[in-house]
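Input record, target 12 of the design panel.
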């Protein structure tokens, strides 16, 4: 009879869960068109991201000259980015000096 009690208690638990308002609302939402549309939108977004990743890491078919040019441009870009960062730091310092000088002038 232990198996019968288990089945009965399981049925009672499921029945209790299904009578819960939050569970019913959840089930209604899962069955709704809104849920299906949202799920499809999420799936499509994931498929697009996966496609983008595959495209990004797919081996590029290019000539050795094009690969060398790409390396050259990448190195130059890194140099320009480093120089731009230095200039932003210098600009920040100059703006700070400007604020200090304006404050000093106002105090006079």
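The sequence produced for target 12 reads:
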């Amino acid at each position: 009879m232990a198996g019968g009690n288990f089945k009965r208690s399981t049925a009672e638990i499921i029945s209790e869960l299904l009578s819960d308002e939050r569970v019913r609302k959840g089930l209604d939402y899962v069955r709704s068109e809104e849920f299906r549309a949202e799920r499809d939108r999420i799936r499509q977004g994931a498929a697009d991201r996966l496609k983008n990743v595959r495209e990004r890491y797919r081996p590029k078919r290019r000539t050795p000259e094009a690969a060398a040019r790409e390396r050259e441009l990448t190195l130059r870009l890194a140099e320009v980015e480093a120089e731009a960062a230095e200039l932003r730091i210098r600009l920040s310092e100059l703006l700070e000096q400007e604020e200090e000088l304006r404050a000093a002038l106002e105090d006079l």
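The chain has two domains: 1-58, 65-108.
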